[in-house]
Design brief:
Layout lengths: L2 H27 L15 E7 L10 E3 L5 E3 L6 E8 L6 E3 L11 E3 L5 H37 L1
Antiparallel strand pairs: 1-4, 2-3, 5-6
Length: 152
Amino acid sequence: MSFWNSLRISSSALQAQQIRLDVIANNIANAETTRTEDGGPYQRQDVVFQPEGQSPAFAALLETTRSGQTHLSRKTGGVEIAEITSDEDPGELVYDPTHPDADEDGYVLYPNVNIVVEMTNMLSATRSYEANLAVVDAAKQMAMKALQIGRS
């Protein structure tokens, strides 16, 4: 794998995690939004990743050789966003007859956003982002050492 290929792969992962962080921040910002343009409460969103240039199905990651054996694809690539999905699980139903979005029985349907889950996802995305920055830094240091060896 070349220096440039490792940078390209890490760069795609950095971009994907940035989008994931943006979606998580949007979920947290809308944790109390009980009415959207569609009329219902905000629905939590999540990012689905896939290998670059591949279909989201796991079977597409496998290749079959002439002997019939299956092995992981040897393509080296990064990651991309397959889709941003909406979580269709219902949110919490809270009795609050004074709320402007309360139904005739006084209940309000809140978004299905759990702040603890979102913060956990945010930590995961942040750690993944930091790991990919470390890969970029390590590739840069190896390239610098190779240049130093070449000068000697």
